[in-house]
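Input.
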Amino acid sequence: MKFTKMHGCGNDYVYFDCTEEKIADESAAARALSDRHFGIGGDGIILIKKGTAAAFEMVMYNADGTRGAMCGNGIRCVAKYVYDHRLTDKTSISIESMGAVKYIDVTVENGKVVSAKVDMGAPSLYSKDIPVLCESERAVNVPVTVGGVDYEMTCVSMGNPHAVVFIDKSPREFDVEGVGVLFENNEIFPDRTNTEFIFVQDRKNLEMRVWERGSGETLACGTGACASAVAAIVNGLCDNDVTVHLLGGDLQISWSGKEGDSVFMTGPATTVFEGEINL
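Output.
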């Protein structure tokens, strides 16, 4: 079966056109193919299918074989794939993932998509939506002790759970691997969580590292960048338009600050290579 390796700011997945073909055991394929030593290598796999509520459906699996609800970097790459492979000639594309429909506008140069702007939908800061077990109805500046250390986190749902933790130094100097796994599996997160460690450079720039549930640390996370910008705006730490600097590149995030309004994310989508594999 043919595949395409793609990434958005280093958040890399193996993509399959499943509009005509099928993968028998999708979860097992994700575990095998994501392995960077014995497989193709990636943060997971993404299957592109015909949509019911949208033109296309994105079916995303983490590296550990668990199903993911949304991937901001992945959905930009799906938009690039369907345009570049002539599955559509539209530059405004609708894509669904686990029932949520997102709308993407792509930028085309020399017949290929180079970047995409995604309407990521409205965020939620309500504890029940994330979900996170805490006393506050809205999970803003919630105290939590992880690994014997006290933190404050603001939790945001972007269709998947995020715990945003602001730190007073560059996250490049922070033990993301050691602390991230403790957040992910903390009992206060019934569905586990993605965790973003954020340093506020100034009101227009955030520096971020991310620990993703089911994948570990990744070079970028689109929903995490959105969640981090929302958390920073809610806490009065940045402007409504902000650049999030990730290990794999930059994403531009825009949010009005009003609950119910969509978050918009703009960033690159890149094809690495194509190949064929027996499944």
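The longest helix spans residues 72-84.
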